[in-house]
Amino acid sequence: MEEKKQKSIIDKFWDFLASVKLAIIIFAMIALTSIIGTILEQGGDPARNIQIITKLFGESAAPTLYSVFQKLGFMDMYHSWWFITILILFVVNLIICSLDRLPKIWKSITEPMGPATEEKLRKFLISREVVLKGSAEKVKNTVSDALSKIGFKCEEASEEKGFQFFAQKGPYSRLGVYITHFSILVILAGAIIGLKFGFKGYVNIPEGAATNVAFADRGTRDIPLGFDVKCDNFNVEFYGMSDMPKEYRSWLTILKDGKEVLKKSIVVNDPLTYEGITFYQASYGSIQENFGRGVFLFRVISANGESSNLQLRLGDSFQIPGSAITGKILDFSPALRIDTNGQAFTYSDHMNNPAVLIDFHESGTHTLNGWILKRHPETWQLPGGHKVEFHDYWGVEFTGLQVRKDPGVWVVYFGCIAMSIGLFIAFFMSHRKIWVKLIEEKNSTRILIGATANKNRAAFERKIDTLVSLISGKEKGEK
Amino acid sequence: MDSSVLFGISTMAYIVAMIMYISYLAFRKDQIGITATVITLSGFVAQTFAITLRWKEFADLSGMGFMRSAPLTNLYESLIFFVWCLILGYLIIEFKFKNRSFGAFITPIAGIALAFIDLTGVSKEIQPLVPALKSNWLLAHVTMSFIAYAAFSLSFSTGLMYLVVTTEKRSEPAYIFWTLTLGIFVIVMASMAIDFLTFKVAVKPDIFIRSYLFKTSFLHTSSAIKILSWILSGIILLAIWRYGSLLKTAMVKFDIGADMLDEITYKSIAVGFPIFTLGGLIFGAIWADQAWGVYWSWDPKETWSLITWFIYAFYLHSRMIRGWRGRKVAIVAVIGFMAVIFTYLGVNLLLSGLHAYGSQ
Predict the structure, then answer these.
(1) CB neighbour list of residue A95: distance below 8 Å, 6 or more residues apart
(2) Cα separation of B215 and A380, whole Å?
(3) Which of A9, A154, A479, B101 is 20 to 30 A from A436, comparing alpha carbons?
(4) What is the C-alpha to C-alpha distance for residues A450 and A120, in angstroms, rounded to an integer?
(5) In chain A, which residues have their Cβ closer than 8 Å to the Cβ of B134?
């Protein structure tokens, strides 16, 4: 007696875990709690979150609320114990509801169809009746032609007073929902694989430097890469003469045991992958303490076409080939602008408009002094047809790379593909069954049609009406 | 011809069509209804040309090829595309169900979106692409997201209509819910209309104000007008609540059955949900993986898309529970669209994050 009662509680609990009701409760819980994490900055600056809380709840409540929120893990809520618990509940519900329903669904998929009784045919939600002249044997072909015209390959059974056709289409479409549910589990499994066996990190590499470690996004862990990644060069391209960036490009070299194994330039949307570790162009910046120590890349061309490539440093002098003109590099600005008084000034620490100040002498006498700008080729021209092309100031910028290893990503993508297929099947395909019974009567044959569809019945009903007009229309034509 | 001229023509057409559809619902004159359809169709044709032209202008300017130059890179362009999808969806419904009364509920959404462009002063210029948007995923991700948004808007309108048709008593929660939703909708539309008439037609201020939105009502400098706006809003809400049954009477005459509305709501979501999942969430994740190195980072945009996804999943599953079918699920469909609006506009305008392309 007692055992029986206990079992029913377990049954009830199982039913609850398998229920749609629990599913929608979980959906609502995930949706509602997720909102918190979009308002409070996750893993961000505490001062910023205090500011947000003050704005929402007032100054007096803010400190208490902040500490309560912090205890509840709101500042990193997607990793908090209670959010993970909801997700686990979500998974449990998904698995149990599938286990609960699949056997029944599987049975209705694999169950062979058989002929139906007249009584049953009349009970279907889609049910039609047509009477044709002639014997059942004569009408048979008309019916089977019409059935194949609407796309059904039928089985045929002889009956006492005639024949019966029956067929089904898309029984496996019933699995669409389960494919979708399964795909969610696959995606979550992929995410867990990524968390367990992968990492997310970043590294800043100055031009010319190399590194064999990255820094984890969460925590302060150093991640050994197992190889060196070197930044050969970094460059920002702008739209026209504006400061609107068009492209960030890093030229990277991978060195394994000191040997060069891979060379690639990366831009946003086109990363580099080596040994499962991927480097993404994420940020950049200038190294101000290097502003005096970088290398100027010049190409000087004299009026008679002689040219040479030069690598110079601040304070260096150079000569224009085949002439008595010498230049001396006096100053550098990462972003030069001329104000309304004609005064040059630096408007940014970034290399938005690199410029170099050069003092020119001809045979020992001072002739010219002026700024040459990388982005303005018109400033490269010197009087007398000579030219100083300013190509780069190298060694003063760093590239910021997002570094990631995620062996689970292909599992996630597999899950995404499965989900797309599952949703397509679940929404746009249905399991359709049709029975057509021919009953011979005096000089005529009664045709009974019964049909079912587990989804989109209206569309199937239209198809059945087409069938009816095909059957009766053909008969009229023969008359 | 310039694309902006054509955009202007289509905007005018949609706003005129909106007024005609609403008067058609009120007066039931067939000529009004036919004119509304013709105007909507012409607006749609003009807009289609305008989008194609802008696409070409952008492709010529950027030199990146046609497929990467889809004009879907900022708030203005995305709102235009959203309206285009919405009108297309509406026209399909009108022709399929041979019923024009839906127009009065759907064209106002387009009207609000278009007025929003004008009043918030979003930039209509063709802007060069930031490096992160230079990807083949742009076209697939953005078009599919907006087709889904448009489908969800349709389900919002028909869900709301379902509630109008099926509620009886003023004390019913479902009745209060739909009158409140419709009331807020009407208030937003009315105050935007006043903003538009004041700033764009009557005053034309010399000083540049970035956003005119609600500056003549809720955000007016004088507190008297602010208070008056709130009082008037209260009166509008009360009036809609008091006389809501008139709307039902008008709609019943158009032979709109509750079952048909439920079917359209479901079908819109059944189209929107898979497209949103694939184009919005999955393609978005793949693109984020390529550009930022993480397929999911709980960024506000991602999280709000997920919230929207869960609300529509809620809708689809709650239909299977006995006693939920009907009014309760219609309410869920309406709430789902509110999440869509927040995912689309709220996140970009109110919250910060990586996905900030649509905030200007």
Answers:
(1) A185
(2) 52
(3) A479
(4) 8
(5) 247, 268-269
How many other C-beta atoms lie within 10 A of the C-beta of residue B249?
Answer: 8
Mean pLDDT of all residues in B74-102: 91
Residue A479 pLDDT > 50, yes or no? no
User: Tokens 């127009």 — which residue?
Assistant: B103
Q: How far is A416 from chain B (nearest CA, A)?
A: 6
Sign of the CA dihedral with B49 first, then B51, B52, and B54 last: positive
Helix residue ranges per DSSP H, A262-347: none
**Contacts of residue B320 in chain A, CB cutoff 8 Å?**
20
DSSP letter for A451, please.
E
Q: Exposed, middle or buried: residue A291 (CB in 10 Å: 0-12, 13-18, 19+)?
A: middle
The DSSP code for A58 is -
C-alpha A297/C-alpha A312 separation (Å) is 7
Tokens at B278, concatenated: 């694939």
Contacts of A185 (CB under 8 A, 6+ apart): A91, A94, A95, A415
**Selected residue of A15, A27, A425 to mutate for chain B interface (largest B Cβ count, 10 A):** A27
Judge: A269–B270 Cβ closer than 8 Å, yes or no.
no
Q: Tell me, what amino acid is at A434?
A: I
Name the token pair of A129.
């009746």
Please give the Cα distance from A346 to B260 (Å, whole number).
67
The CA-CA-CA angle for residues A287, A289, A295, to 5°, reads 75
pLDDT 10s digits, A378-435? 888 888 888 999 999 998 999 999 999 999 999 999 999 999 999 999 999 999 999 9
The structure tokens listed for A250 are 């890093």
Residues of B in contact with A423 (CB under 8 A): 273-274, 277-278
Tokens of A15: 């039913």
Tell me how crowded residue B253 is: count the other CB atoms within 10 A of its CB. 11
CA distance B246 to chain A (A): 31
